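Renewal narrative, Specific Aim 1. Our central claim is that a sequence can be written position by position from structural information alone. The example that follows is taken directly from our test logs and has not been curated for this report. It begins with the structure tokens describing the chain, in the order in which they were read.
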């Protein structure tokens, strides 16, 4: 092999012999999901039933939508700690608008549900835009910028509601703002709306990553930002866009969650950012950027969701649930380190190569 040829590591199932270690590492999220399903099915006859699977999928959809946005950020080599607070703020904005808004010289206006949806998504995108500009333009570390936004967004939500909850968000036929339940509570053919949103979003996000110029730029910028910048890729523009997308996904979750609960609580989404990061890591993405895919992230979200619901069904204490979730996350990070250490670039002929 010449020194100008990259060394490409084939997946275990495409190599000449079966590498069991590589197979287990690369398919760990899938095998973990199977193990979790079998384990809790043996412990509880109610776990693997159509009704319970549908309910768990509804929970997973929220994690998955949030994790898809987080994946884009992680692929860029960043992190977004503000998504949980953005979920809460988005729900509060939706509840605030649904109850009517006093307009000077006009009186009290009641926006339609679709106006509420658009305004809420715009708020989430604005939070992401602020994060992106702070990080890309002003060189603030992603951890610091998004941590600050975590507190700011949560504080705004608490200020709007004065710390209380907007209850009974049904709308009124008299004011023409009914139908909010269709955003997340109602379903199509018995399947919750959130599940459909998850499927569509995952398909579009995967298509963008694998088939568009933006997707190639995102992987390149996350793998080596300096090299990508020297090759003409608008690195700052890519960075801003991924944070806007993450904020958009968070506001989607806020809308769906508020619709499901028919109430808006400013503390909603608390610790959701950790769940999203966990799903991305369990799905095999590298926190260093440049590696990961939608398929793995979805599997990671299902692992987190099915594990959480299984622990509840068998009656495990909430405190032990936190211990188990933490252990799963740490194990996932360790396995990621082992997997990517095995893929470390090797030098040949005085040059170093690595396949994405």
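The sequence written for that structure reads:
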């Amino acid at each position: 092999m010449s020194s100008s040829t990259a060394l490409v590591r084939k997946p275990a199932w495409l190599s000449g012999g079966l590498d069991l270690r590589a197979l287990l590492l690369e398919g760990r999220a899938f095998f973990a999901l199977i193990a979790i399903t079998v384990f809790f099915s043996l412990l509880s006859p109610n776990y693997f039933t159509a009704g319970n699977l549908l309910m768990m999928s509804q929970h997973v959809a929220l994690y998955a939508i949030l994790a898809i946005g987080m994946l884009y950020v992680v692929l860029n080599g960043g992190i977004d700690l503000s998504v949980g607070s953005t979920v809460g703020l988005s729900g509060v904005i939706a509840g605030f608008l649904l109850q009517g808004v006093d307009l000077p010289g006009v009186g009290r206006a009641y926006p339609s549900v679709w106006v509420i949806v658009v305004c809420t998504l715009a708020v989430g995108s604005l939070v992401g835009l602020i994060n992106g500009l702070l990080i890309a333009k002003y060189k603030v570390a992603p951890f610091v910028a998004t941590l600050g936004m975590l507190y700011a967004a949560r504080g705004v939500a608490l200020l709007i509601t004065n710390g209380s909850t907007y209850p009974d968000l049904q709308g009124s036929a008299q004011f023409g703002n009914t139908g909010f339940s269709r955003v997340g509570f109602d379903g199509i053919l018995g399947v919750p709306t959130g599940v459909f949103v998850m499927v569509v979003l995952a398909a579009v996000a995967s298509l963008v990553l694998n088939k568009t110029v933006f997707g190639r730029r995102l992987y390149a910028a996350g793998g080596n930002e300096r090299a990508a910048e020297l090759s003409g890729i608008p690195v700052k523009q890519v960075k801003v866009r991924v944070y806007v997308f993450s904020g958009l996904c968070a506001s989607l979750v806020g809308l769906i969650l508020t619709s499901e609960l028919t109430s808006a609580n400013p503390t909603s989404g608390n610790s959701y950012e950790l769940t999203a990061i966990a799903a991305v890591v369990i799905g095999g993405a590298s926190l260093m950027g440049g590696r990961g895919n939608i398929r793995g992230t979805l599997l990671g979200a299902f692992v987190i969701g099915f594990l959480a619901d299984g622990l509840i069904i068998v009656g495990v204490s909430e405190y032990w649930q936190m211990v188990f979730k933490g252990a799963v996350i740490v194990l996932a990070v360790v396995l990621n380190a082992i997997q990517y250490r095995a893929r470390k670039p090797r030098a040949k002929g005085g040059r170093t190569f690595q396949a994405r």
